[in-house]
Amino acid sequence: MDKATGTLPRLIAPGCLWTGGCMAASVSGMLAHYSCFLLMGSQRSILIDTGHPAHAEQVERDVVAALAGRPLDYIFPTHAELPHSGLLERWLSRWPEAVAVGDLRDWPLYLPHLTDRMRHVEGGETLDLGDRHFLFVPPVWRDLPDTLWGFDPVTRILFLSDACACFHPHTPGQSDHFSSEVAAPEVALMQDFNSKALHWPRFTDNAEGNAAMDALLARLDPAMLASAHGAVVDNWRDMLPLFKAGMARAA
């Protein structure tokens, strides 16, 4: 595992690269991560989320370097929203043998010329990467109806799209830091992010969702949580109460 350098990319576990970048958030003085993750099994690889189009050149450079001559086999947009899927067509063109995987119920409408390179999957299905079977996970704190999460049983990283996300202060040199390497996020900032990204937390009591999240984490026992819009969480047991507070309705 690489040490933090201040900027992405960062190898967060053997065979798992974190890349992407940060952009100005809707809260003045704050930034938001726009991350994607390359997971390399012994025989096949998968890119989890496509990255934001603003970071296309960096993501391509980082992925090509990490693959070191290997092909990119699968591209997994966790849901049909720009930071998560906006580069799907570009990567399918860049890697002509790659296959898009995920909840792709609507994608034949968006990219009808690439329908033959789409594989629709549902929560509970797995993808053979050689030395591991990547698990597609039904999301708990979801964004859109087509959201899926993923879990790698080897590194024990849970990839959870928009969940456990937060705006962060514009502090240079912290883009690739784990949650244990930076100050804990402010609950109000998490509530603000969730009210904009997930929409529904402002209207509902999340007690049932919290219990479902507890059950999922107990079952998978992840080592890390990898969100597209926050620091990679390597101390989730300490952070979970904060994440639950961030899902609550703002006062």
Structure notes:
The chain has helices at residues 56-67, 82-85, 88-94, 107-110, 187-197, 207-220, 236-247; strands at 10-13, 16-24, 30-40, 45-48, 74-76, 99-102, 118-120, 126-128, 133-137, 149-152, 157-159, 168-169, 224-226. The longest helix has 14 residues, at 207-220. The protein is of the alpha/beta class. It has 7 helices and 13 strands. The termini are far apart. It is 25% helix and 23% strand. The strands form 2 sheets. Strands 1, 2, 3, 4, 5, 6, 7 and 12 form an 8-stranded mixed sheet that branches. A 5-stranded mixed sheet has the order 8-9-10-11-13, with no helix packed on it. The mean pLDDT is 92.
Structural descriptors:
7 helices; five-stranded mixed sheet; alpha/beta; 251 residues; single chain; eight-stranded mixed sheet
Radius of gyration: 17 Å
Strand count: 13
| Proportion of residues in extended strands | 15-25%
> Helix/strand-derived class?
alpha/beta
The poorly predicted ranges are none
Kindly state the percentage of residues in helix. Answer: 25-40%
How would you state the average pLDDT, rounded?
92
Largest sheet: 8 strands, mixed
Q: Span from first to last CA?
A: 40 Å
Number of helices: 7
Task: Give the topology.
Elements: E1 10-13, E2 16-24, E3 30-40, E4 45-48, H1 56-67, E5 74-76, H2 82-85, H3 88-94, E6 99-102, H4 107-110, E7 118-120, E8 126-128, E9 133-137, E10 149-152, E11 157-159, E12 168-169, H5 187-197, H6 207-220, E13 224-226, H7 236-247
Parallel strand pairs: 4-5, 5-6, 6-7, 11-13
Antiparallel strand pairs: 1-2, 2-3, 3-4, 3-12, 8-9, 9-10, 10-11
